[in-house]
Every structure is written in C-alpha cells, then in structure tokens.
Batch of 4 targets.
Target 1
Amino acid sequence: MTHTEPDTDALLAQVAQGQAHARSLLLLRHRERLARLVACRLDRRLAARVDPSDVVQEVLAEADRKLERFLQERPLPFYPWLRRLALEQLALLHRRHVRTAKRTVQREAPGILHLPEESAAELAERLATSATSPTQAAIRAELRQRIRHALAALPDRDREVLILRHLEELSVAQSAEVLGISEGAVKVRHLRALARIRDLLDEKEGDAP
C-alpha cells in the first residue's frame, strides 16, 4: 500500500475546508517535480514552439480547475494524479505538433514509455557516471553507448523505474506512489533493472572480438 506525503495530505485537507492559501501551496509544492518530468519527456522537436515552463503552468492551471472533482473522487494519490495530467498534456502537444501519418493516437497515449533521444542519452550518462570515476572519461563515454543499447533491451517496466529514479529524480516512496506498488517492490525492480543492464553489458563484451 502506498502513502501520500503527510504535508500534501494536510494541504489537501485544508483545501477541502476552503483555504485558498493551502490551494496555492499545494500546487506550488509540486512545481519542481513536474518541471523535471516535463524536461525529460518533452520531445525536443517542440523546443522552438513550446516552452517547458508554460507546459508546467498549464498543467498546474488544469489541476486547479479540476481540484474539487479530485477531492470528491480521489482516483489516485495527489502527485500521480498531477503527473497523469502532465503526461496527457505532453501527449496532446506531441500529437498536435509532431505526429506523422505513421503515428496513431494509441502510440502517443500517456503511459507509453517514450523518451526523447536527449533524455535517453542523459539517463545513460547518469548510469555511466555512477559506475565510473570522473577521471575515467574515455571509459565512461564507451560505457554510455553500451548502456544506451542495454536500456533499449530492457522490459518497459524495468526501464520505467530507472527513468523515475534517475531522470525524474523521485524517491523510492514517490516512485512507489506513481507506480502503485510497494516501496520494497520499487527497490527490487530497480536492482533488477541495474542487474539486467550489467548482464547485457557483459554479454556485449563477451561478443566483442
């Protein structure tokens, strides 16, 4: 069973009592987290047309409009609900600005694990950096490329936990809340994903002439 953060719960209770100041604090509390989400998920082909900060602002404005309904229905813990709004907004922008004749709405649907090339490269860089020392730049560059290939071979759910932990920078508890699983399950999935990457790297090294 997952739990929302106590401060968020307290703010939600105050919002339900009609405290406007709590409403503002509740939305501002999650701005930075949303900004990281948008930064790693926004297709770079939209850079000239879409300002990430405007996307975050629009998501918060939509959340504000829908907050009363959220309080009545509580379909999810607050941040996963807010994050879902953000993913829906990103999918809408992508369909509007980037879609081609070969793409379908289903392939653009929120929840599909899709990362821009730059974000995939950043994830590989962070994993490579954690595995090597700063003085091993050449080794890290080669490792980064190998990790990119390994990430592409991971099951979606294992790759997802790496994105949450290393790109969106969510804690174990926050990741558990987003995924709807226990913190223990997040830890197991995270360790399994890292172990799978190591196995894939070893296989690749073994195939080298």
Target 2
Amino acid sequence: MIRKAMLFCAGLGTRLGAVSKTIPKALVSIHQKTLLQRNIEYLQLYGIKEVLINVHHFPDKIIEVVNKHDGWGSKITISDERDSLLETGGGLKKACNYFNDEADFVLMNVDILTTLSLENMFHTHQAHQDALVTLAVTNRKSSRYFWMTNEENIIGWGNDQTGEQIINSHNQLKINKVAFSGVHIIRHQFLELLQKEPNKISITDVYKKLFGQVIIKGFDHSQTIVVDVGTPDKIRIAEQLFA
C-alpha cells in the first residue's frame, strides 16, 4: 500500500469569501474538526501516516495547529510556499524529493471530504501498471470535467463556462463527462515529466499536455460521498454529511 501523501493546503480559498480573510481553508472547521485534521485522519485509515503539506495563505497558523496537535499522530512535513504560490503542479514539483523512494503516492486537495475507498482506488491503479496517474472521478455535474472512455481512460478536459475543449480520441470512441474529486494516485515516473514543466503550473494543465502521450486512468466512485468544501454553502452541506 501507499506510505506517503501530499495535501494541497496553499490555496487562497477565495471562494470562501469572508471566511478566508482570517484563516486558511485548511483550518475551516466541520463540527470542531478542521479540514486538515479530517484529511490527515482519513489518510491514516489507509495506513498513510507520512504527509507533506504546502503552505502559503496564513502559513504560520497552519504550522502552529500542526505542532499543537503533533500532527494528529502522523509525521507532517511542511513545504513552504509563502514567497510564491506555485499552484498544484508547481507545488508537487517543489516537493518531489519527498517522494524519491516511493513507487506510488497520493495527492489530495485539503478542501475535499470524501468516503472514497483509497484501498479500492489503489487496487485499480495497481491493475494498470502502464498508467502514470489514476484520478478519482464521479458522474456528478460540474462546469469543468474530464472526458473518460468506457475503458476508464482519461483522454480530455473541458470547461463549459469558457467553451475550452481538449480531447485526444477517435470519433467512434464512447466517452463520458466526469467530475474530478481532487484525489490523485501518482506513479513515481510522473515526476520525471513534471521536471520539464514551469515552476508555477496547475497539475490539471500538466495532465492536459499529456493526453495522448501517457495513460491516465479514472476511478469512478460515484456511489460514495464527495464534497468540495470551497464555498460557505458547501460548508453547510459538509456539516450535514460528516459527523
């Protein structure tokens, strides 16, 4: 099984409005437990107790909480981005040495809460040794989405708000829109490709460049709960779904 993970905690959380004016999104609480604590404990359910988190927005507050709670029983490493927000791809590139000895590792957005089974996702990932990445997806509605084939290959991306479409497929291929759940399982070889990218880049933009060049798999977990706790409304929804 996987030993290490990275939680993306550096974002500004602008969709949270006034909430993010005083705290980073990682410290938003759902029933007296922060998103950071919930996801540290979520990863522990699958034996992952070494976690790297990147910080930028109110970094000292995150570090203080981690130290106060001794990482909630996990070994927490900080990747400091306070000088420059590197986005998700750049954040992973800066921290790639952390995963030098790992065959596979997990990436996860800290503002995602889910009942997804990482064990089942990892088994799917392992069954496709030619895939560099496996992404958790569902069939929920989203303005931004991946295109996935019936064979669960991710071959494209779209944005209904801007009309942008990137797709690598043949016309006869059956494809479906799926929403990304903010959870990735990455094979170590992906880091070699990431070194060619800018120091500041979204990991989704990296994937978009790789369609048709490498195999990216989707793991459909539509039967489980996933909440992107990125807005005040979603905080209320998360409070209804997570104790």
Target 3
Amino acid sequence: MNTVITIGRQFGSGGREIGAKLANELGIPFYDKELLTRAAKESGYCEEMIQMHDERPTNSFLYNLVMDTYSFGYNSAAMVDMPISQKVFLAQFDAIKKIADEGPCVIVGRCADYALSEYKNCLNIFIHGDEKCKINRIMDKYNLSETKAKDMMIKKDKQRQSYYNYYSSKKWGRADSYDLSINSSILGIEGSVNLIKQFISDFENK
C-alpha cells in the first residue's frame, strides 16, 4: 500500500477515532495532534503557539498573499509581517507534505487534502453524522449537557469550516470536495473503517 488518506470530519462524528482505527489496522502512521508536534519541531515555532492557532480561521490576511509567500519561500520579505496564524498554517502545510513524502499514512483535518492536492496517491475522506448521534458522542466524551454539547458542536464545526474555506479553494463538507463522504451514524466506527479499507483497495487495484 502506498496511499495517503486524509480525513475531514464534523465534530462529534467520530472522524478521529475512525482515522486512528484505520491507521492501526493498516499498520501505517496516524497524524492528528501529532502533526502539530511535527510542525513545531521542523518550523522552530513552539508547540503551544501552533496549538493555539490550530484549525482556527483568521480574517486579518488575504489568502493570495499567503500562497504567494508560500510560493516564494520563508525568506520572502512578506513573511516578516505575516500574522502568526498564517505562519502556523504554512508550517503545517510543509509538515503535511513531508509526512506524505515519507509513505502511506492517515492525516486528520488541517486542510491536508488541499495541501496534497497534487499527490496522485492521496484519497480524501469526509466523515459526517446525524446531529443527535454527534451530540450524544460529545456528551459522553466531554461529560456535557445536551445543550452545551450542541453549542460545542456548532462552534467547532464553524471554526473548521471557516478555516478550510479560508485556506483552500474548496468548500468544507461539500461532497464534491472529497473522494468519499461517509455518514458514521449509519455505519458506525467499524463499518466506516471497513468501507474506507475497501475503497482504498479498489483505488489501488484500479
């Protein structure tokens, strides 16, 4: 297997759990928060700063300038005046590419599908779920009331959507932005993992 799998996910859909289980069953590396550690190590930024800006959108900078700066490299004069949030994004962008170059893996979130858009061996998955199932999962995981769980779900998804739509040229959660979209409320964790494994097999044998 030489396929890199990226997973976008709604909050509470079990996307991270699905990604971790998939990576474990395939025997390949898994990156979620681990990506932040890698980005911090390779960029020289402290991990706490990267965590603070992780998957959080910003309105203070134009997308085009971000990508122009990325194209010209970190020595560009624009890099000096770039907000921390953009520097963090570019550090993650670089880390994602380096990780994908090392071999098959599963990467959760952080516009990984966009960062790897030119990679022919990349499959992009999106995990979503029914509202009630997601709220119940959040309630159980964080020991929250239904109201607080729903508020947390809405807030997190808005952050992820804004971040993704800001930095990428696609729309977060929209089917045509991904190769496969899965409702984990129907299939469950195990069923979702099995479907992705079959999808990978078909992809590699086409």
Target 4
Amino acid sequence: MFMGEYQHTVDAKGRLFIPARFREALGERFVATKGLDGCLFVYPLEEWKRLEAKLKGLPFTRADARAFQRFFFSGAAECEVDRQGRILIPVHLREYAALTKEAVVIGVSTRVEIWSHERWQGYNAETATSYEEVAEHLVDFDL
C-alpha cells in the first residue's frame, strides 16, 4: 500500500526521485499516465493490468467510455528507476502535470500520484473545507 507525502525536485532532464518505500512496492517496471485533477498516476504493473481489464470492459459504443480510454491509455508510459532512484518522466506527462521544478509525490493506496507543488497546494486549499462533508457521504465507519 502506498501512503505518505514527499517533496522532490524535477531535474533539467525531467528526472524525479521516487521515495525508497514507493520504489520497492512499484517494482522494477511500472506505468505512469495522465491522472485526474492535473496530476500523474503511477501504478505497479499488476495494478495496471487490473485497471486495464476494467477499462477494457467499458462499452466502446459509449462516447464517454471511448474518450476516457483514449485519455488514460494515450498518456501511459512504462517507466523504470535508475541507479539513483529516479524516473525519467516523459515530456508529454511533464507538460500535462505542469511539472517544472518542485514536485510532490504522494501515496494513495494502490497508486502513487505525482503533482506539481503549485497544483498540490491549490488542490489542498480547494478541498480542505469539504473533507468532512465528503467523508460523511462516502465513509460509513468511524475513522
């Protein structure tokens, strides 16, 4: 399981350090793709295969299903970690997530998310006041 928040820097070549705990769980090869809310989603290959199977099951006759499949799969790239614990984030994914210098790497249960520092701060500011309301509607047990 992925959890935690880590601040790192994207270097001039587009490489980003991945925390050791995340590297262990991601394995040697994993998939990064365009995520929701302007971040990147990163999945271990096993989790990616489960997600791929679910998305393949969507009806191709529905325009919204086709659009989401295109969005999700067209941005996907297989990644691996170098000797220094970094991944090279492809240009199209760096542009999508507005990753220029400062980045935030977070664990979200079955996936890792990579955010630009600015977007992460903005997202947190926007959603901070609604966490209790969301929890009330989604979670049916005591935290």
